[in-house]
Amino acid sequence: MKVSRRGNVPPFFVMEVMRAAFARERAGLEVLHLEVGQPSTGAPAAVLEAAKAALDADKLGYTDALGIPPLREAIARWYRDRYGVAVPAERIAVTTGSSGAFQLGFLAAFDPGDRVAMASPSYPAYRHTLTAIGVEPVELPTGPEHRFQPTVALLEALDTPVQGLIVASPANPTGTMLSREDLNELAGWCSANGVRMVSDEIYHGLTYGTEAVTAAEVSPGALVVNSFSKYFSMTGWRLGWMVVPDDLIRSVECLAQNLFISAPTLSQMAAVAAFGCTSELDAHVARYARNRDRLLRELPRAGFTRLAPADGAFYIYADVGDMTDDSEAFCRRLLDDTGIAATPGVDFDPARGRRFVRFSFAGSEDTIAEAARRLIAWRAQA
Q: Which end of the chain has fewer CB atoms < 10 Å from its terminal CB, N or C?
């Protein structure tokens, strides 16, 4: 029987690492989780209370495909209050996580055979989702000289035109960010060349001394994706949103009606309360900042000296080319020898990722401190 080629995409290797880590835990052995991009904290208290109230009311039927009005309005206020940008609630689409947003956005903006550029390294689901819908990912090899971000020069060096550009600031796996000037330059190039910008902003709120700029400020034609998973500490609630340009809103709505019906109703009702929880959430960010400082201080003592600038998110991307040319095997040894789970760079850069490893510092301070101690001891024995 026929099997579609759409599923012929690489696995998400971090999930493979998590499987090995969970197997180790089932065997009664300790694991320090530095592999997963997930806050170690739960949802804010007010969100939990709102969810309990929604359950008690038992009004959890389908919603409008673009989301419940109170949540769309709360998101619009978030852009006004946080960024000083007027975004009508009518242009907000609530989605099943940022993953649902990317699927809807890519389907609405691009046709099979189109080409979409992105930095390499980058979040692997960009490539895999585009590939599954017949759109060609075009990787822009970036390095420290580009701060691991796309540039107009890299785009202009392409032999064949592209129809889209994905930007991420802060980025996964590097944590690097685009300045307002850089984002403006990329947005201007996209506008001049008829290229749709897609801005992944799911790590907004998780920054360390650098201002995060939304593409909604610089490009009215950009698709802007965000999520409740990272800053709002609600990964399992599977809730995200998009700021959708006027010319795509009806397409996104029709696709959402057919593919998802609506985002999870309980999550939507609870998430309205999340925007009043910034004091609690900013305390998490302060902890991430302490974890980041510790790793930036301790990793060089373990021999990890070539690190991407971790301006935001909760990752450090380390060049381990002087230690190994096989980051998958390196991460397996690291887990077996120390109990530390980390993610090999092949997830983010198929061509050069065998010499990179990503460490997440989203865990507790005790976890990060113990991981640093074990890394230093492990490398001392190498």
A: N
Tokens 């090899």 map to which residue? Answer: 141
Beta bridge partners of 315: 360
Residues 271 and 288 both lie in one domain: no
Which range of residues forms the domain containing residue 25?
5-43+278-380
Is the CB of residue 233 less than 8 Å from the CB of residue 202? no
Q: 258 with 299, same domain?
A: no
pLDDT of residue 166: 98
Q: How far apart are the first and last CA of the chain?
A: 51
Mean pLDDT of 155-174: 97
Contact call for residues 196 and 223 (beta carbons, < 8 A): yes
In what order do the strands lie in the sheet containing 136-141?
92-95, 240-243, 223-227, 196-200, 164-168, 115-120, 136-141
What CATH number should be reported for the domain holding residue 307?
Answer: 3.40.640.10
Single-letter amino acid, residue 77:
R
Does 267 share its domain with 127? yes
- In this predicted structure, the answer to whether residue 328 has a pLDDT above a threshold of 80 is yes
- Let me know whether 108 and 222 are in one domain: yes
Do 167 and 31 share a structural domain? no
CA 306 from centre of chain? 22
For residue 375, pLDDT over 80 is answered with: yes
Please answer whether residues 250 and 293 qualify as being in contact, where contact means their C-beta atoms are separated by less than 8 angstroms: no
Per-residue exposure over 265-274, b if at least 16 CB sit within 10 Å of its own CB, e if not: bbbbbbbbbb
Is 86 a domain residue? yes
**pLDDT tens digit string along 205-225?**
999 998 899 999 999 999 999
Q: Are 328 and 13 in contact (CB under 8 A)?
A: yes
Same domain, 216 and 154: yes
Beta bridge partners of 341: 33
DSSP annotation of 377 reads: H
Do 136 and 242 belong to one domain?
A: yes
List the alpha helices (DSSP H) in the chain: 13-26, 45-57, 69-78, 97-109, 124-132, 152-156, 180-192, 215-218, 249-259, 265-271, 278-298, 327-338, 365-380
